[in-house]
Amino acid sequence: MFENLDVLKILGYGMTGFSFLLVLLTFFLLRAEQNKTQQPRPLIIKMIWRFMLMTIFMVVLNGFISLPLFNQNMRLQKSVTQLSNSNNEEITKEITQNTDEIEDLITNSKTNEDSIRNAMQEIIDKQNKALDSIKATLTIAHTDKDRITKIENLKKEMAINYQVLINPNIDKNTKMKANQNLKTLNLDLKRIAIASNK
Fold this sequence. Notes:
This protein is mainly α. It has helices spanning about 5-10, 15-35, 40-105, 115-140, 145-165, 170-195.
C-alpha cells in the first residue's frame, strides 16, 4: 500500500508533511505489534501511546503554526494579484497603442508596401511578446487555468487578423476590418487580463 511512498516529497510540504509521516509511522508501529503471534508487549504498547501523543501534539502545533501563515499567504496572493493587474494594465495600454499605429500604417498610402509590412511585423511581434508577458504574469499569480486558456485563444484569433494585415494582396478595407477586430479582441484581453477586485 505504501511501497512507493515518496518521503522527500512529503517532507517538502513542511510541518504538514512531517506530521503526516508521524501519523503514518504510528500506524505502522501499531500494525507491526498487532501482527505478532505472541501477546502484545506492555512496554511497546506504552511507547506507541507516547509516540501517538507526541504525533497528536505535532498535528495540533502544525495547525496553530499554519493558521497565521495561511492569512499571510492570502495577503501575499492579494499583493501578487494587484501587481499582476498593474502590469497587465500597462501591457494592454501598449497593445491598444499598437493597433492605433497599425491603423495609421493602413491609412498612410504614401508609404510603400514593403515598409508597411515590415513596420506591421514589428508591431505584431511586440503584440505577441505582450500577450506572452500577460500569460506569464497570470501564471506567476497562480490564476485559474481558464483565464490563461482564454488568453491563448485570443492570441490565436489575433494571429488570424495579423495574417490579413501583412498580406500584400488584401485591400485596405479588409485590413481596416481586421484591425477593428483586433481592437475588439484587445477589449476582451483587458477584461480577462485584469482580475476584478472582489
